[in-house]
Amino acid sequence: MPEPTLFGISEEGKRCTRMPQPDVPAAAPDEMIPAAHLRDEPPNLPRVSEPEIAQHFARLAGENFNVDANFYPLGSCTMKYNPKVHESIASEAGWTRLHPEMPEEAAQGAMRLMHQLESWLAEILGMEAVSLQPPAGAAGEFTSLRIFRACHDSRGETRRRVIVPDTAHGTNPASVARCGYTVTALQSGDDGRVDLGELEDALDDDVAAMMLTNPNTLGLFETEVLEIARLVHEAGALLYCDGANLNAIMGHARPGDMGFDAVQVNLHKTFSTPHGGGGPGSGPVAVTAELAPFLPVPRMIESGDGRLAWDWDRPQSIGKVHAFYGNFLVAVRAWAYILSMGAEGLRRVSEDAVLNANYVMHMLQDEWDLPYPGPCMHECVLSAKAMLQETGVRAADVAKRLLDFGIHPPTMYFPIIVDEALMIEPTETESRSTLERFIAVMLQIADEAREEPRRLHDAPRRTPVRRVDEVKAAREPILRWRPVE
């Protein structure tokens, strides 16, 4: 049975706690709040006991899908298991009780951790300088483009366009618009990668930058990245790398060595922070030496007495992009992850992620369309287009049916250049047995689509909430509880 609301278990006379009577005379309500703002009657709150509240929310939590309990192959998001030891380290009182306005002389340990993390990320990414300030991946994109704009302004250049391939990460066009540029979309070639001819046609002296996701959202490495960098730089533009897919190349290839001028990396995807639910996130930006003066302030510098200090004297800086110095506890988790994995462990992460994705792709490509054949990186993109034409079963039906097996659906209908897309990222943390179960379920669903398509159209059957009218839910959302009249 569905979990009832707290109003559903409410009974008159129940209460959670009793507050002690105040030992000072209480002021009349209208002396503290204007009478016009006071309610005529007490609010209609549920009457429940403390154990009932605890049990209610524990049962709700058990119905929530989470990566610690189930397989979560959400493409392009790297929803992977994160070791709990890193969560424990980030929960230490020395970190959690540190006030962000603590004087720098009293926060040297935290500053040293962040300074060390910046140097590690610079090495991993092959860049000169890093800022931990951006609080999310999209904020890292925004910060990078702001830096590009400041660089062009310092040269006296006015450039108005940014090239974004159709295989870019989905937030790139929004970041372009936020920074006052216009998007020039670049159509991919037949192999799912950047078409060099299309790129050359798009480049001119009005182009400020190109935003390239590498590996791209098809899970393919841009094999012509060095030539792309040469063409972009010859046009006087700058090259940005969306590092959301760093999980595929970490320890094996560095954006700086590929010719990128700036790269954002998602600590909450690659470096051990639970991802999803709106946060927390962190999208540090790494740049070349030429762009380092434009990084957000403040910057951490070594002072003469061996201490770290905040440096605000950066006249070319774009200013602050987030309060204080970003999401500190996410940085702590990333620091702990890198320290515990070491260089060899980080390389192994990428190797296992790529191996898992290729195994899934190889085992499913005969039953599901593979729009761009060949080895993939950390994720593979299949399609239900032929299945739809043959049986009437859509990618959305497949996703709903997966829920009946306790498997979270992969990303659907993205990237948009693939019809009925199913974007699968198994990550490096899943075992072969988990992958084989997923493969078996996907093959079973393919059989059901041909033999019992109604089973898929009616799915899910075993979840707390059955399939809803998603169009109605989007157009007529119910945002608050109201009693049944």
Provide the helix percentage: 25-40%
Task: Please give the largest β-sheet.
Answer: 7 strands, mixed
The beta-strand count equals: 12
User: Helix/strand/pairing class, anyone?
Assistant: alpha/beta
Structure description:
This protein has 485 residues and is of the alpha/beta class. It is 38% helix and 11% strand. It has 17 helices and twelve strands. The chain has helices at 29-32, 50-63, 84-90, 93-96, 108-125, 137-154, 172-178, 196-202, 225-234, 255-258, 267-270, 328-364, 385-391, 395-404, 432-451, 453-457, 470-475, and strands at residues 129-131, 161-165, 182-186, 207-213, 238-243, 262-265, 285-287, 299-302, 308-311, 380-383, 411-412, 421-424. It has a seven-stranded mixed beta sheet, sandwiched between helices. A three-stranded antiparallel beta sheet has the order 10-12-11. The chain has a two-stranded antiparallel ribbon with strand order 8-9. Strand 8 and strand 9 form a beta hairpin. Helix 5 runs parallel beside helix 12 (328-364) and helix 12 packs across helix 15. The radius of gyration is 26 Å and the shape is globular. 38% of the residues are buried. The model has no long low-confidence stretch (mean pLDDT 93).
